[in-house]
Specification:
- The protein has 243 residues and is an all-alpha fold.
- It is 57% helix and 2% strand.
- The protein has helices at residues 25-37, 41-49, 51-62, 70-89, 94-111, 121-137, 157-179, 196-222, and strands at residues 2-3, 144-145.
- The protein has a two-stranded antiparallel sheet with strand order 1-2.
- Helix 3 runs parallel beside helix 5.
- The protein is elongated, with a radius of gyration of 18 Å.
Length: 243
């Protein structure tokens, strides 16, 4: 997997703190910034110019929190995937388009959260602490891009994100194993950086950023956006294919 580069291109705008949601504010900021870094150069510049609108879209999506089922979130995401190219055809102000790019990304982040919709009381007991744990460990976490083919995001968004849902239990189990090693709840302060909880955090964030980046590429392509200089995508080799 390709590691996401950082440097002068990193956008430093903050995502406003959210009262009750899956990820801590610094985690959200990191996820959005890394998603932007993976965007085609033209889209990177465009959403960077409207970062406030983009961040507002992410924040509003994350407010969905655990109120909606995965099926409902996928349905909303599919609607967003139709709405955004429509706004472009209507020549809507790009501030609106940037907002909906952010909203779509926020829905993707929620769909990759293994703790948010669980009815298990053990999960409810650890969710807030695990969010704080990720915030503490964020400087050490390596967010990697899955690549456009691993897995490929085809035309059926519903099928893609349903497949993601089927894999969440393994990460939920890995996290719970760390919190309940002998049946009793322990503090995340006892975890080391080789723990399942640490590894799961890296995978969860990597999948979230990768899926959002792949969705953005797909949306930008449907808007006839310039796809050149897309990080980690060999545009000239298969330019007629949608990743």
């Amino acid at each position: 997997m390709a590691l996401i580069r950082r440097g002068a291109m990193v956008l430093l705008a903050a995502v406003a703190p959210l009262a009750c949601f899956a990820y801590g504010p610094q985690t959200v900021k990191r996820m959005v910034t890394d998603t932007v870094l993976l965007a085609p150069a033209a889209l990177h510049s465009a959403v960077g110019a409207y970062r406030t609108d983009l961040d507002q879209g992410v924040e509003d999506a994350l407010k969905q929190n655990g109120r909606d089922s995965a099926d409902a979130l996928i349905s909303i995401l599919e609607s967003e995937a139709q709405r955004i190219p429509g706004l472009a055809r209507q020549q809507a102000d790009f501030s609106r388009i940037a907002y909906h790019f952010g909203y779509a990304a926020g829905l993707v982040y929620l769909l990759n959260d293994p703790l948010i919709r669980s009815a298990d009381p053990k999960v409810a007991a650890i969710r807030e602490d695990y969010s704080a744990y990720i915030e503490r460990k964020l400087p050490l976490l390596i967010i990697s891009f899955d690549g456009y083919e691993h897995p490929e995001m085809g035309a059926d968004l519903g099928a893609y994100f349903q497949a993601r849902q089927s894999s969440l239990q393994r990460y939920r189990d890995a996290i719970l194993f760390c919190y309940y090693p002998h049946g009793e709840l322990v503090s995340s302060m006892t975890f080391d950086n080789r723990s399942n909880a640490f590894g799961a955090a890296q995978v969860i964030l990597s999948h979230s950023v990768s899926d959002a980046a792949k969705l953005w590429y797909r949306l930008w392509k449907s808007m006839d956006g310039d796809l050149s200089a897309t990080p980690y995508y060999h545009y000239g080799k298969d330019r007629e294919q949608t990743p």
